[in-house]
Amino acid sequence: MKGLVQSSRKTGSSLAWGVSAFLWVALVAPLAAWAERPSAPQLLPASTLVALRITDTRDFVDKFKNGSMGRMLQDEQLKPLASQIYGSVADLFGQVQDRVGLPLDKILAIPQGELCFAVVPPESGPPSIVLLLEAGDEIGSVSKLLDRGLEELEKQGVAITKNQEALGDTLLIQLTPPGDGVGITYCIRDGVFLASTNKEVLKSTLNVWNGTKDNNWTSLADNKKYTAIMSRCSAAGEERPQVTWYFDPIELFRVGARGNFGAQAALAIFPAIGLDGLQGIGGSILLGTGEYDAVQHIHLLLDSPRNGVLELITLKPGDSTPEEWAPGETATYMTLHWDFGFTFREATKLIDSFQSEGTVARFLKQRVEEPLGLEFQSELIDAMEGRVTYLTWFEKSGKINAQTQMLAIKLKDAEAFRKTMDRVATKFEQGLEKESFGGVSYYRVKVPEGGNQRRIEAERQGGNVRVQLNVRTPEPCFFILDDYVCFTDSTSLLRECIATRNDPEKSLGKALDYRLIASKISRQTGGNAPGMIVFNRPEVGLRAIYELARNENMRQMLAQRGESNPFLKSLDKALQDNPLPPFSVISKYFAPVGGMVTNDETGFHYMTFGLKRN
Q: For residues 14 and 100, is the Cβ–Cβ distance under 8 A?
């Protein structure tokens, strides 16, 4: 369908609108089961390059409604606001309803089972798109959308050629645009809409459904890369994921390189740099399982042993206990362990092998060492112990960009590195100011006056109205705290870290919610110690959005923008008619989130989970 839309600018009308609507997942009502058929992974060929699948849209929506976000939207104090916003969207959609042929609620009710979008390589030519939509008793709405789309194209003078062909008991309908555009072929069978930009691909899929597939044909469900990824993305004891996805980037590049000399040349380099060892990537999303509100898996499948650039990813297990200076009110905390020395040495060898021996050394000497007056490997790379921590924290300033961040790198010898840092800083003393707080010296980058004067202008009858937003001016600074060299965009965060170090009982590591997440992570590793962990408090970020929605200047700006934007106007009215309740009404639905990355012989695995709050 995408090819059809791109074939003519005129084609970007109702037909494109109708087909894209099939990908929407929203509130649906349970229906009785219909005829059995193979699942999408069984219908798709083993050579499938991309596959995004919702196992059952009804189950997905039910689980979403019972999750933290869904329950929040159904809260008695928030439901009127959510309902009015949805009503406004439906009213706006009503302006094009005659062209589309169906009201918004009917379109959103179409998905009634499995939904899958895939990219499949034919024997020749570009990759083909395949769409499977299980609509059940709503299949009539699909037909109506297609018919209305063709009518609209005909009114616009776009001549779509329509051909029909029978394959067994199934009628195939081929739509071909004028010129060289790529059309689509589709069929409707047993309440399922099945379409492809390649007729032969669609026929092959139907043959599998009919049980008349070629003896040499294998399915995506039999693809070893696909099954290896999916097995890692569905932990023992978990329910069936509602969403799964799979992507074979190297094979997709290989198929796309057909007939392209430049791309073929690039493809030939992949083995030399080790990229051919990237077998695939995929993941899953599971909602409402046991004590978890949601669980997400992502697995990067790699060859073993790894070579080239893949060997440079040196994530390794290590201590993940938060540093004593990490503030207890940290919003997001991430820490990982990396072998910087190995990565630097192997990267140098790899680059030099394509250029000439000493290429990296000469570059660093000219661009880094001579200008800064230091030795890159011995004074920087070899000075790093291997642990890196990143965190975010919100200033209590009421400013719209109150979120601050800090990056900290652990050192082998902090005092030795302090001398290196001081020496380098003298070369930029005109742009730096050396200050101190709580016995810690730091360098602050000078920011020009007026850096926070940001205004958003909106035209109104009778004059030009200016709205000035309360925006935080970043204060970049760097310093050494205990065994870490730290970089932050806020001196307030710097002071908070120093104050926390002086009172460790207020640090993140002592917070009950962090300790709870840490205990869950330790039980999820499956014997593989994580190389990286993540901790997040969703309610902290939501509070920032909440305060932004209540900010008077932002509301004024929303009203101004609403004069020319119907949706923003409706949003502004909804917020006026239904003022936001106290933040405690929102925050009670959200629990902390944890995540981790492990590194084993199959590749890298990322898992994140959010706890279910009663």
A: yes
128: containing domain: 2-222
pTM of the model: 0.87
Rounded mean pLDDT of 186-193? Answer: 95
Number of domain units in the chain: 2
pLDDT per position as a tens digit, 576-607: 999 999 999 998 999 999 999 999 899 999 99
- Burial of 589 per CB tally in 10 Å (0-12, 13-18, 19+): buried
Within-domain flag for 247: no
| DSSP H helical ranges for 220-316 | 224-232, 249-256, 261-273
Rounded to a whole number, what is the largest CA-CA distance in the chain? 83
CB-count burial class (<10 Å; 0-12, 13-18, 19+) for 4: buried
**Is the per-residue pLDDT at 463 higher than 60?**
no
Cβ atoms 302, 496 nearer than 8 A: no
Whether the Cβ atoms of residue 61 and residue 26 lie closer than 8 Å to each other: yes
For the chain, the first-to-last Cα distance in angstroms comes to 44
CA dist., res. 570 & res. 551, Å (int): 18
pLDDT at residue 534 is higher than 90: yes
**206 and 84 part of one domain:** yes
Strand partners, 247: 50, 281
∠ Cα 538 539 542 (to 5°): 95
Residue 195 lies in a domain: yes
Report yes or no on 331 lying in a domain: yes
- Tell me the pLDDT tens digit for each residue of 366-407: 999 999 999 999 999 999 999 999 999 998 877 778 899 999
Q: How many CB atoms lie within 10 A of CB 499?
A: 14
| Listed residues 172, 206, 222: the one ending a domain | 222
Q: Domain check: are 461 and 604 in the same one?
A: yes
